[in-house]
# Entry
Amino acid sequence: AQSVAQPEDQVNVAEGNPLTVKCTYSVSGNPYLFWYVQYPNRGLQFLLKYITGDNLVKGSYGFEAEFNKSQTSFHLKKPSALVSDSALYFCAVRDPRGNDYKLSFGAGTTVTVRA
Amino acid sequence: SQTIHQWPATLVQPVGSPLSLECTVEGTSNPNLYWYRQAAGRGLQLLFYSVGIGQISSEVPQNLSASRPQDRQFILSSKKLLLSDSGFYLCAWSVTGAGTDTQYFGPGTRLTVL
# Structure
């Protein structure tokens, strides 16, 4: 079985401050991990993924995420948040040993960046 | 490059009416295709996925069905809509292979059942 948890429904930060969105996962083997962003009334946009290799993954729009196997976490970070980063963020996981190609998504975290 | 289309963008339907939502993908072959529903702007519920023409897996028993008549076409249908079918419907595609399991989403269809 595979699952993710996003412990925070909402994250509020001031523009220019660091932004962190938390994600923890549960999967039997080595996970594939993903972050997506969704703006109102739009589809999800892919930000970044971890498959293997370097634990620090860099993605679109200045976002990065760090895979921590011992803590089973994959937190999304941005050093300096922008007002335009205000959106709904989803973490997702897949067990690559499965043959159904399904992702398990977290419940989402709403990020609000105030000017 | 690959693109994914969904239509219509918005739909208002009365209870008991039929439904047909269409999703097409361009620029790739033999994609895996997915239908999700998102209620109230929050979590995603996987409804159906397909790994090939005519191969549909259902995740949740309900009054919806899916079909894949062509390699890059995925259709979500209902014979009689319920109020609870309202939501934001998202189609996604992926290509199987090392590092290419990423799902890419379409723009979505906002369905309101009255």
